[in-house]
Each structure stands twice: as C-alpha cells, then as structure tokens.
Write a structure and sequence with these properties.
The structure is a single chain. About 35% of the residues lie in helices and about 25% in strands. The protein is built from 13 helices and 15 strands. The strands form 3 sheets. It has an 8-stranded parallel β-sheet. A 4-stranded antiparallel β-sheet has the order 1-2-3-4. The protein is globular. The two termini are about 20 Å apart.
C-alpha cells in the first residue's frame, strides 16, 4: 500500500502548493550496481490555481546528491520566490534543478494544460505518441536467479539487464538461454572498467546485447573515445541536460534522457532536439516510480530509438489511472492521468490535495 506524508504546504498570493512524500512498495527487491531498494521514495508536487490542480512526480537520487530533504528545500525556495502563479515558470528554472525541478515543472505543465485547454504536445510541438516497445528490467542477482527472473520475459522484444562487473558473461548467458529471441540493454551504472568492456563486448554482442548503458564512471569515460566495439554505448549518468552533449561526442552513440536528470519535460524537450541534431540516438529512461512519473517522459517517445519506462511494472500499487503494458508493448496513456485539458481530469490529484491540504 502506498503511504503518504505531507512535507510542505504553501499559500501564495493566488495559488497553493502542496508537496508529499510517497513510499511505493516494489513487487520485489530491485538491485543495481550501487545498491538495492524495496520501495520507491517519490515526491509528488501539486499546484492549485483557479480551482484546478496540476501534479508531478519525481525521485530524489542519492547518486546526484539529492535527498528528500534537499528536494523539499528547493521546492520551498521556488514557491517562496514565486508569489503569484504567473511567476512560476521563470522561478522554477532559476531556483531548482533535478528532482525538485522535475516535480515542479511537470505539475506546472499539467496545470497549464487545463488552464489553457491546450495539450502539452501542442505546447512543445511534439509528434503524436504511438504504441511503443519498452524495455523490461531484470535487477542484479546470481546467474541462476536472473535466469529464473527472465522466464516471464521469454518472448519480450527488449529486456534491460542490470549488471555489475561480477560474472558478466555468465549472467547474460543464463538470461539469453531463457529469452533467446530478445534483444538486451545492459546497464552497468558506472560499475565497469574499460578492461571489463573490452573483454566482454564481443561475447555480449553474440548474446543479442544491442546497447550498454554507462559502463564507466562519469568523468572517467575518456577511454571510450578510442574504443571500437559492435555494441552501441549510451550515456546515462554522464548526460543530464543539453549542456552535457558536446562532452559526449565521440564517446557515446546514445543519450538516456530522464526527467529527474533534466529537471522536467521542458528541458528534456530541448535536450532531445539538440541530441538529434548532433547525431545521437535517444533513449527515454526513468527512475523507479509510478505511471505519473512515466507520463511526461512518454511524450518524448517519438524522438527515441529505445524506451525504458517500465516503472509501473516494478511497483505493487500504481496510480488510479495507469499505463497499459503487455509483454513490453506500452500503450499511450490516458490524459485522465496527466496532461489532460478537461477540468474533470486528475481525479487522484484532486483527492490527494483535498486530503493533505
């Protein structure tokens, strides 16, 4: 069951802002190279103006120096600088970043859609979304346990595998045996060395691995410039906003766009457009969260070669309105979840606001 705690409630001159922390239990332990979790700790921001409520969800990430407390502090700074709702757009950008900015930006955009009657796709001149293939994620375990976990994905078109640098080939071979026709993304989360990459690249390619995410630590990836392998390399931790793109040229083929890194959809659109111009392929990724966090990111799917928005499959309980994902096929979301222009949208957001305000 999702548990909620009110952390912030601010009354501006003509708006209210409410921020709550929610603990969303996961279906099973989720392990990556730098740790494990049994729940997603998310921040939900709600902004109320002219009787309407917009909402957004983010995940403060310790890898980037974020905590629940620091995120709430940044949200408070924005809401105290913006005395009126019309000041929000500029203030969000000036006084926040990362997870705080993401929750604020997405709540603001959701509310603007209702106020203006204009869809967010129109606001950003985005193409219409279609059904896509999303990766489905396996977390780190023993080769035997990872093979067992891969059984339900036997016919999945795309599987993402979290791997540290222990038994890389043994684990991928075990998984490939269970899903021989799938393509794989391997996510190392900065845990490999250049030697690890050189030694395993050919064998991974033979096991249908088509992409490796962030094999080397950020700031130590210069060695990738002289590496030539048959698998595309994706920048994750090394790519946050558009300003990072020049430093990635010649080292990476793909950039992973996550709204918690860009600070929301507004900067993510800029990053996606500039990345395309500079010749990068795009992956749309996520932290572990609910369908509410996936919805704004999904609007970027027409830009992307790879989609990794399977957060809703990892949680025990999702939003009242959620994504439909079947064997990796992810349908466009209902605007009753987020971004709808009707006053009747966001039933859950209105319920949460009424409950905690």
């Amino acid at each position: 069951m999702i548990s909620s705690t009110k952390l912030l409630h601010i009354h501006g001159d003509d708006f209210e802002l409410l921020a709550i922390q929610q603990s969303i239990p996961l279906k099973q332990v989720f392990r990556i190279a730098r740790g494990a979790k049994t729940s997603a700790q998310v921040i939900v921001v709600m902004i109320k103006y002219q009787g309407l409520v917009g909402w957004g969800e983010s995940v403060p990430y310790q890898r980037y120096g974020e905590t629940i407390e620091s995120t709430i502090s940044a949200i408070k700074a924005v809401s105290t600088h913006a005395k009126r709702f019309t000041e929000f757009a500029d203030t969000i950008k000036a006084h926040s970043q990362g997870a705080a900015q993401n929750a604020l930006d997405c709540a603001y955009l959701d509310l603007q859609a209702k106020l203006t009657g204009k869809a967010i796709e129109v606001r950003f001149n985005l193409s219409k979304t279609q059904t896509v293939i999303t990766a489905q994620t396996l977390s780190i375990d023993t080769p035997e346990a990872m093979a067992e976990a891969a059984k339900p994905f036997a016919e999945a078109p795309l599987i993402k595998v979290k791997l540290d640098n222990i038994d890389i080939i043994e684990k991928m071979t075990a998984i490939h045996t269970m899903a021989p026709h799938s393509q794989f993304i391997v996510d190392a989360n900065e845990a490999w060395s250049i030697e690890d990459l050189r030694q395993c690249a050919d064998e991974l390619a033979a096991l249908n691995v088509v992409l490796i995410e962030q094999p080397l630590p950020t700031g130590k990836d210069e060695a990738l410039a002289s590496l030539h392998i048959d698998i595309a390399l994706c920048a994750d931790e090394s790519c946050h906003t558009a300003k990072d793109l020049p430093s990635l040229l010649g080292k990476y083929d793909v950039v992973n766009i996550k709204l918690d890194k860009t600070g929301g959809l507004t900067e993510a659109v800029t990053l996606a457009a500039q990345a395309k111009v500079m010749g990068f392929d795009i992956m749309i990724g996520c932290m572990v969260g609910s369908s509410l966090a996936m919805a704004p990111a999904f609007l970027l799917s027409p830009f992307a070669k790879y989609i990794d928005l399977d957060g809703p499959l990892l949680v025990k309980e999702d939003r009242l309105v959620s994504f439909d994902i079947d064997n990796g096929l992810m349908q466009p979301f209902s605007k009753q979840l987020w971004g709808g222009v009707s006053h009747e949208c966001n039933i859950e957001a209105n319920q949460l606001f009424a409950l905690y305000s």
